[in-house]
Amino acid sequence: MKVMVVGNGGREYSIGLALKKDPNVSELFFAPGNGATPQLGHNVTCKDYEALADFAKENKIDLTIVGPETALVEGIVDIFKAKGLVIFGASKAAARLEGSKIFMKNFLSRYAIPTAKFIETSDAQKANQFIDTLELPIVVKADGLCAGKGVIIATSKEEAKEAVADMLSGKSFGDAGLGVVVEEFLDGYELSLFVVCDGEDYKILPAAQDHKRLKDKDIGPNTGGMGAYAPTPLIDDVLYKKVEERVVKPTLMGMKQEGAPFEGVLFIGLMIVKNEPIVLEYNVRFGDPECEILMPLLKTPASELFYKAATGDLKNLNIEFYTQYAIAVVMASENYPYGNSKPAEIIIDKNIHEGLDNTHISYAGVSLEDGKLYATGGRVLLCVGMGDSIKEARERAYLLCGQVHFVGKQFRSDIAYQALKHDK
């Protein structure tokens, strides 16, 4: 089977890593890929999605897997399907669940799916009036895609109103902020749940927990994610069932009623408040860094999962996962998430310590020059460790962190801290 992965981040590298080990996969392509993906397959550059679909057809690509949200929102799946190609991902209509937070919040309301109290508006006065009714802190979100950074948690009403003004003026997030969602802050803990769907059937993957804040103890600005682990002990069978009945089933039913049956992977960002699941957001693709830990836990050949989902055949898939834990620690560049950093050569120690056989690196923001890898993105790479307990997986991930060097590297030292007290 020839497979192409669309995207250039750690998520796509991790999907590629799983496919590289898959005996069903004969050849692997990345569009456009990053500086490290040539270790796994061939990088492909095309001027647009039409040209990429033509490339897939000419090269007899059996399956295309879409990683990033932008391509989905822009309709890559519709273009490929129109040419008779097999592609894993959400249609343009279904991708509105992530492409517009206003659509998403109204969808939740229409189908009585639990979510925070909110208002969506492009009128600053209405937003400010709603802000005055809320207790602190207050959440302000830009409507459109902001690469995981379009959320402000304001600690004063003045800050919330200023965030609204900056978004609606286009100052903060350009056109993505010309509509806003203001909502109440929920006090609980976050979980990431991923559901692979084929429009009719679905498979729920092990729940993960992401760490959004830049620094230890969950302080500092929100980022695209500084680390994650799975499966998490912060969810049990009772809570899984609540999420399935109250969120997963009505979401998929609702999307069918909207005329946009959901295919691909649905990320459900949950806040658990007093053991009740409340939806924070939907994404229409794998989370990053959650994908980097779910892929190595997947025992079923990755090509089978993606192909059966893309061809409406999930009901015939028996999905299996390894009974281990995985932890990913993001190594970010010096100025992340505030701005760009100077390219820095990545050096990995040659000496191998005991325990590193259960670790690997997933490369993200890297470029290849003269045979050397350079850190050129915000989130540069992820150190992944696996083990029979969260503690063991964590120790291995951080052992690998000690082997990787580049100027200005920064990473959190407390990934999975909430789970450690539950560890076996």
TrEMBL record:
Q: Which InterPro entries match?
A: ATP-grasp (IPR011761), ATP_grasp_subdomain_1 (IPR013815), PreATP-grasp_dom_sf (IPR016185), PRibGlycinamid_synth_ATP-grasp (IPR020561), PRibGlycinamide_synth (IPR000115), PRibGlycinamide_synth_C-dom (IPR020560), PRibGlycinamide_synth_C_sf (IPR037123), PRibGlycinamide_synth_CS (IPR020559)
Q: Which SUPFAM superfamilies match?
A: Glutathione synthetase ATP-binding domain-like, PreATP-grasp domain, Rudiment single hybrid motif
Q: Which UniProt keywords apply?
A: ATP-binding, Ligase, Nucleotide-binding, Purine biosynthesis
- Alphabetized Pfam families for the sequence: GARS_A, GARS_C, GARS_N
Entry-linked PANTHER family: PHOSPHORIBOSYLAMINE--GLYCINE LIGASE (PTHR43472), PHOSPHORIBOSYLAMINE--GLYCINE LIGASE, CHLOROPLASTIC (PTHR43472:SF1)
Q: Where is the ATP-grasp domain?
A: 105-311
The entry assigns this protein to a family as follows: Belongs to the GARS family.
Task: Give the catalysed reaction(s), semicolon-separated.
Answer: 5-phospho-beta-D-ribosylamine + glycine + ATP = N(1)-(5-phospho-beta-D-ribosyl)glycinamide + ADP + phosphate + H(+)
> Which EC number(s) does UniProt give?
6.3.4.13
Name the enzyme group at the top EC level: ligase
Could you say which cofactors this protein requires? Mg(2+); Mn(2+)
Q: In which pathway does it act?
A: Purine metabolism; IMP biosynthesis via de novo pathway; N(1)-(5-phospho-D-ribosyl)glycinamide from 5-phospho-alpha-D-ribose 1-diphosphate: step 2/2
Name the GO terms of the biological process aspect.
'de novo' IMP biosynthetic process; purine nucleobase biosynthetic process
One GO MF annotation is: metal ion binding
What is the protein named? Phosphoribosylamine--glycine ligase
Is NADP one of the keywords?
no
